[in-house]
User: Which sequence fits this backbone?
């Protein structure tokens, strides 16, 4: 049998094609797990500099989270199923496509709330399911405090919204809850993730896709992302 062995140049072309999103470039650095997409675009770089800056005021911080979420949402909604439809334009009939998927957004309270509106702007028919969780400051372990997800009829696709993925403990809990609900297609949208957290989720849930604007190298002794942006929930809601 003849085996197809791509040349180095062809491999590079395949790689570039595979990682190129429809709006902006999406990169997988060679050291990143295959289910992680870092959205790479000058606008992402720009707005990241705003959320990282310690002197950014809450109003500007919220606006930058909003803009970054929109930029991440485009690649994160790639491959949603669509149906062919015939549409009458003012001139003639046109072949079009419409989304045919039940999408549920799952913001993780509190910080995830800052990402709901921008996703709803591009997916206005999505439903929103809230999960409440905070990290114990001493142990860095997630503590669940709100969950009204039903047991039956899960959405086709669940998009978990949380600006920060640090140790990955919170996302781990959310993914397990959604799997218990019966969701098959789970996607995580985050602004900044730490490498250890990303690797943990990728290892434990290889089918879960993670879309991020930045991957920071490490966590400090308090399990904060370094350099990160501080505490997204506190900066969105202007709480100390
Ligand atoms: C932050 C963040 C994530 C979690 C990330 O929430 O928004 O939910 O910590 O950490 P992990 O990956 O180590 O689990 P926080 O506890 O600050 O709650 P808040 O959103 O109410 O501010």
Assistant:
């Amino acid at each position: 049998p003849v085996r197809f062995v791509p040349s180095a140049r062809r491999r590079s072309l395949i790689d570039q094609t595979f990682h190129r999103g429809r709006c902006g470039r999406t990169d997988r650095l060679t050291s990143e797990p295959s289910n992680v997409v870092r959205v790479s675009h000058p606008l992402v770089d720009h707005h990241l500099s705003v959320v990282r800056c310690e002197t950014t005021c809450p109003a500007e911080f919220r606006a930058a989270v909003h803009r970054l979420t929109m930029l991440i949402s485009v690649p994160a909604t790639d491959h949603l199923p669509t149906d062919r439809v015939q549409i009458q334009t003012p001139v003639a009939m046109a072949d079009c496509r419409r989304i045919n998927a039940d999408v549920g957004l799952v913001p993780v309270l509190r910080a995830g709330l800052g990402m709901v509106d921008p996703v709803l702007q591009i997916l206005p028919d999505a439903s929103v399911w809230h999960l409440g969780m905070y990290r114990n400051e001493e142990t860095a372990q997630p503590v669940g405090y709100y969950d009204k997800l039903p047991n039956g009829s899960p959405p086709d696709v669940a998009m978990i919204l949380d600006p920060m993925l640090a140790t990955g403990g919170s996302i781990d809990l959310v993914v397990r809850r959604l799997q218990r609900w019966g969701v098959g297609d789970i996607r995580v949208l985050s602004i900044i993730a730490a490498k250890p957290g990303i690797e943990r989720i990728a290892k434990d849930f290889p089918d879960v896709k993670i879309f991020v604007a930045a991957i920071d190298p490490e966590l400090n002794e308090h399990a904060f992302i370094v350099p990160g942006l501080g505490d997204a929930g506190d900066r969105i809601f202007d709480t100390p």
Q: What stands out?
A: Residues 1-24 have pLDDT under 50 and may be disordered. The longest strand covers residues 185-194. Residues 233 and 239 are 8 Å apart (CA to CA). The pocket of PRP is lined by residues 108, 110-111, 133-135, 140, 142, 162-170, 197, 223, 231-234 (CB under 6 Å).
